[in-house]
Amino acid sequence: MKYRQLGSSSLQVSEISLGSWLTYGSSVDESQGLACVRKAFDLGINFFDTANVYGRGKAESFLGRALAGVKRDSYVLATKLYFPMSDGDEGLSRAQIEKQLDASLRRLKVDHVDLYQCHRYDHDTPLEETMAALTRAVEQGKARYLGLSEWAPKEIAASLKLPGTHFVSSQPQYSMLWREPEAEVFPLCAKNGIGQIVWSPLAQGVLTGKYLPGKPVPADSRAKTGEFMQEFMTKPVLQAVQRLRPIAEELGASIAQLALAWVLRRPEVSSAIVGVTRPEQLEDNARAVEIALKPEHLARIDAAFEGLR
User: Is 54 a catalytic residue?
Assistant: First the structure.
């Protein structure tokens, strides 16, 4: 495993990190989830990302059990808040930040998180209130650093003008099929010490190459029910993904490894979050850090998706 500094923080995070959206505490049974966490440590993965809303607290509770007894300074733990946890509990107000952070710490069974992230921007709470409450969480020792996810460039820029503790990380969707952050978010963040922790680098599995154009989707597949995936499940996209296969084979890699290596080619990216249900998937993903892409590979990848952007 290789490691990168997370923005302007002192955190060194593994280039591949383990996420828990739609997996641990919900669709993956306990023993399988624990096996994935053990495999992560075996592979040198030290960065675990979750959120209070994943499974309505169940993902955090799972990680609390999975990481119990593990030396606290041997891993980097990140969680998030914003989305509803109940009818009256949502957003980034001071009251919610205090309440949700304490609840996350209880479920995670730790006295602090390394990274506390705003899962989205809260248009109903003054930004000044949000940043002051987050700064207080850092001053209290409950969070070491602060991050954001899916904020617009103007919202990120506004946060940088306020006093107090600033963000060190951004968590955008980013993959071969979703390159939007490259235009404004990446350069703005790079200038201000904010590293990128990218989610869905495999486009929810589409960039593994397992979905073939013109072939039925397996009944138990996430693609069968996942609304988020549908924009990527078109015939032109699936055909483009298959055009990656010879490039991957030349590199001795899988399509998934190629897609992860492509994300990690950007120096702005500190880590790519993967979601796995089996330890062997994580082992396959982790090998992506060994792949060095040359300009000719990148040109061929761009050509594979020509006409789709």
Answer: yes
pLDDT, tens digit (0-9, with 9 covering 90-100), for 98-110: 999 999 999 999 9
Express each pLDDT in 267-286 by its tens digit.
999 999 999 999 999 999 99
Q: pTM above the 0.85 mark?
A: yes
What class does CATH assign to 3-204+263-291? alpha beta
Q: Which pair of structure tokens corresponds to residue 231?
A: 């924009």
Domain boundaries, the chain: 3-204+263-291
Catalytic position from the list 3, 24, 54, 211: 54
**Residue 226 structure tokens:** 């996942």
Q: At what angle do helices 127-139 and 94-108 cross, to 10 degrees?
A: 40
Alpha-helix runs per DSSP H in the chain:
30-43, 58-66, 94-108, 127-139, 153-160, 185-191, 222-225, 235-242, 245-250, 255-264, 279-286, 295-304
- Exposed, middle or buried by CB within 10 Å (0-12, 13-18, 19+), for 49? buried
Looking at residue 219, the DSSP 8-state letter turns out to be T
* Spatial separation of the C-alpha atoms in residues 164 and 123, rounded to whole Å: 20
